[in-house]
Amino acid sequence: MAETAVARLGISIALACRTFGRSETCYRYSPRLSDENEQIADLLIGLTQARKTWGFGLCFLYLRNIQGHGWNHKRVYRIYRELELNLRIKPRKRLKRDKPDELAVPDAPNQVWSMDFMADRLEDGRAFRLLNVLDDFNREGLGIEVDFSLPAERVVRVLNQIIEWRGKPRTIRVDNGPEYISGTLMKWAETHGIGLQHIQPGKPQQNAYVERYNRTVRHEWMGQILFETIAEVQDHATEWLWTYNNDRPNMGIGGITPAQKLKLAA
């Protein structure tokens, strides 16, 4: 009412405030959050354009845990909704089943690694494979190897390369694929004093950490791009792996990155 009186009748602010029982401080107050809200909106737009597969949870964790902003969860979500940045996800009908026992989380790095293969095709239809190696402690991707064929000898070579910079694991959890039950891999593991833990056939939930990682790999880049050559796939995998380990919050380890969790354990 004071603002209307000043605007329409041309009276002074002091007279309008006395008339309606308001202080001049209250009259002259302007919200301080508008500039910050614009900053939040700009960051959210830029982040969702750069990371098209990230939902609000990952965006908020990135702003808080990676960039260090202390904005309230509800405030950021309100702006996220106003900008209509929500991912459009079509729900799928799922059958109910017994919930499997949760995997134990190792207490330190290099206690348990997980390995698994993925498959896809190039633009010309040729099939290729990916070998993913993961440290269960901090969900760190230790390597992604790409080629048309990845026999047991190649698996051993990849593991030797990772061990050179990461150190030797106590146990490696694998499924029952031919590469994992071959004499080559078993002999290598015995020579290095590494245990091979095979999951039960038909029980992929027993290797849940790397299975969840595989889903992220397919969702965030492998299922988004049509590659022409193996070299292109390997280059993209290497670039994405750095982002995953150092720049992408992981909800499975408390909303921080694998690199941050490894640093906290040092």
From TrEMBL:
Which BP terms does GO give this entry? DNA integration
Q: Which residues form the Integrase catalytic domain?
A: 105-266
Upper classification of the organism: Bacteria, Pseudomonadati, Pseudomonadota, Alphaproteobacteria, Rhodospirillales
Q: Which organism is it from?
A: Magnetospirillum molischianum DSM 120
Report the superkingdom from the record.
Bacteria
- Gene3D superfamilies in alphabetical order: Ribonuclease H-like superfamily/Ribonuclease H (3.30.420.10)
PROSITE patterns reported for this sequence:
INTEGRASE (PS50994)
Protein known as = Transposase
* Sample GO molecular function, one term: nucleic acid binding
Give the signal sequence positions.
Answer: none
